[in-house]
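Lecture notes, structural biology module. Today: joint structure prediction for complexes of four components.
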Amino acid sequence: MFSERRADERKSDNRQLDSRLDVRDVRPLDDRKLAVLRAIVQDYVGTEEPVGSKALVERHSLGVSPATVRNDMAALEEDGYIHQPHTSAGRIPTDKGYRLFVDRLAEVKPMSAPERRAIRHFLDGAVDLDDTVARTVRLLAQLTRQVAVVQYPSLSRSTVRHVELVALAPAKVMLVLITNTGRVEQRMVDCPGTVGENVLAELRARLNARAGGQRLPDVPGLLEDLPAAFEAADRSVVTTVLATLFETLAEQNEERIMLAGTANLTRFGHDFPLTIQPVLEALEEQVILLRLLGETADAGMTVRIGRENEYEGLNSTSVVSVGYGSGDESVAKLGVIGPTRMDYPGTMGAVRAVARYVGQILAES
Amino acid sequence: MFSERRADERKSDNRQLDSRLDVRDVRPLDDRKLAVLRAIVQDYVGTEEPVGSKALVERHSLGVSPATVRNDMAALEEDGYIHQPHTSAGRIPTDKGYRLFVDRLAEVKPMSAPERRAIRHFLDGAVDLDDTVARTVRLLAQLTRQVAVVQYPSLSRSTVRHVELVALAPAKVMLVLITNTGRVEQRMVDCPGTVGENVLAELRARLNARAGGQRLPDVPGLLEDLPAAFEAADRSVVTTVLATLFETLAEQNEERIMLAGTANLTRFGHDFPLTIQPVLEALEEQVILLRLLGETADAGMTVRIGRENEYEGLNSTSVVSVGYGSGDESVAKLGVIGPTRMDYPGTMGAVRAVARYVGQILAES
DNA sequence: GCTGGCACTCTGCCTTCCAGAGTGCCAGGG
DNA sequence: CCCTGGCACTCTGGAAGGCAGAGTGCCAGC
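The predicted structure, tokenised, for the full assembly:
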């Protein structure tokens, strides 16, 4: 009631034109209210306890009295940015409050120079792609003290470095696909008949000539007419091999993900098993994690706060994710899952820094 | 005090010869005491609550009164098989109690025929080694409702199916090792100079001729004198490739492990974060898990209860593990991690059954 | 050697109580 | 007009006390 009236008054005071009521976000939050919200978020993230007006003015030099802050808080609550667990308790930011904080009040906190050096050094020690991903995910978990998720460089964005065919038995061929990101996929091919080494050699040469350096999704189109180049007798073998190759290329299921830092979940909150169980369940499902990362925007960092997450089990968590890649282009994504009450600037800084350095490492190797 | 005296009396009553006091396990537990212990374990596993004498006689037809059971319990407690959280609370089995239960009182509960069919069917759907392991670990987690751990068939026990060399660039060769368990390892080799295709072909042929079908640890010995068979100019290349191959063979670090069912940890106990955190930490460390499985006896099932586990963080858990393999021989291990208060017969039955079927699948493929 | 009975102890739960923190609102001042 | 000090109110969280129930050790008797 009270703040309703108040709000209307202020509005007509500030700018007469804003008389269309009840339009979302129509009332501009003045600077002090924003400062109050920022202070609430910061304090709550630090203490995990609802923050009251008195404590606020003590810890941040807002230059006004608690009573004034209380008025601002009432306005913020009415607009849905903060929330009171019980009458006469302090305030807690809502998802919407965090959203505003992330969008307008927080700056990504850059890593310090020593931190950057440490990251760089740690990642430099990796010996192969597996190791790189493993190191990345552990590093991220450690830096953010949250659950880290790293997707392997996806097949669809990479290019063919080499295709190899190996005869293992008269009618059994192993197909090995190596991508520019260092990823190796292998498949067994059961051929319809014995395969001559000369046919295999020719096929191998033609495959690499045409597909080498090409992006994976483009490859099928480029090889369509390949069987025609072979003698009729060999065509069925060629078609079989090609079919397996296309299958390998298309197989999005093979998107792999690595995880670390689940132990950090124990720092989640007080109402333990309830919060943590659905999260653990989500983390077990590669599909869910992939979808989660898939929602990441291609450019820039994505932050999904609380209920903004599609998957219900993660409704009380926030996900900070970003693409990374060997060049300018993102070939995969990585991110962090933590409580909505997280240190957004710090987390975003760490995620961004790690993504940048993995990208560099991949580009070099 | 009281039970001290009592115990001595009973001892001297039973058999006069047993006058050497304080020798471990000197007093044989009569059948009823064992029955009582069994009943306590069963009830406690079911209810998670300390079990008292009255409830015991009600739920199990022991044929005696609560008072009698109390006397037995006092004896069991004195011997360290059970324990009272507080005066006038019920009893809880100790690690030693569970140990006795597992060793002498419990029978592995075989899976029912439909269960076995379901296992078989589920595992049969696997398309490759990765998938087999993934299915196995999920299945195990689901069957036991605990955390499941499956080790990839280890390199050290398997044999060479094929070695392949692929020239990727003038001085860059890819080495691919395929084992009889379907595992594929690849390494890049930077050669000291350009490698001719004819040299590569000869090396490939010789490698497969000598190493094919051999157990991995035996391979280095068999290939020692291989460089001598080549012309002096090519020897440095051969040595480099061999070095990488030996490295791959020796690399015990590459032992991989797959995990599932962490969400089941939430059913652990009441004192939550304290119990679960060290466990989650342990689960993140492949090294710890590998050591854990490494302690598994080569033949037969191993059960490590509570403090029997080397790693401190798992002191309140039990680990049931067993080897599995494609033939008679175990090539890797799998197991389950759960609270000491677990259904041992059921868990052991599930672990054994799953191990058996994975073995069969591997043998067939 | 088992059993019923008894006095005792301890937990878990409920209720009550109280301090503390926080609030909404009002009236007064720059 | 906005800010502020003051005030009465509300609600939580923890401490203190009380009570029922479960479980025990022990004794005397069969």
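Point to remember: Residues 1-26 of chain B have pLDDT under 50 and may be disordered.
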